[in-house]
Amino acid sequence: MNIDFNVCQNCDGVLTITDKSLYEESLYFRDFSYEDTVTINIITSEHSEDPELVGITYTTHDLMLDEASISIEKDGLYNVTHIIVPSLQWYNTQKELKFNNLSKYKLLIISDGKNLYQVIDDKFIPYQETELLSNINLEDSTFHKKQKLVFLTCFLWKCYINLALEAFRELIKKNQGNKVFKCG
After folding, report:
1. With 0-12 CB in 10 A as exposed, 13-18 as middle and 19+ as buried, what is 152?
2. What is the pTM of this model?
3. Would you list the domain boundaries of the chain?
């Protein structure tokens, strides 16, 4: 399964991230059905040598819509990392099966929809979302990720529009007495 997602920006500095991966009835990704997964979006600012964490969103797959929004405070280059991990429900179901898929993963990461956990010897150890950004061998893990760079320009556009409106208002003031309004 190939992960795909769109990132859209609106005029108020809000990024909307929508999963566009193909949903299949039997398998969404590797051993997981769509309902057994959680999407995590990690947004980092690429303004300096050290990326700065801007925000993290979690989306459980109760509905067939996987979409999240996050407000961004300034223009610039951002890295959006879209990650899919199995849910705690999937893990519990696997544990009940006589023959399960848990042993094939060297790095077992799951989510309850609010936090990430690494499972080691049936113990849930809190796992930092930003650790998923490093180059980990995805074949031996329970998560899959894809990244996209986005250049946000909404605040620059607001400045341009405000400047254009002000110029237009001044032009109207100058021509208030004239019945004919001429451009150019």
Report:
1. buried
2. 0.80
3. 5-174
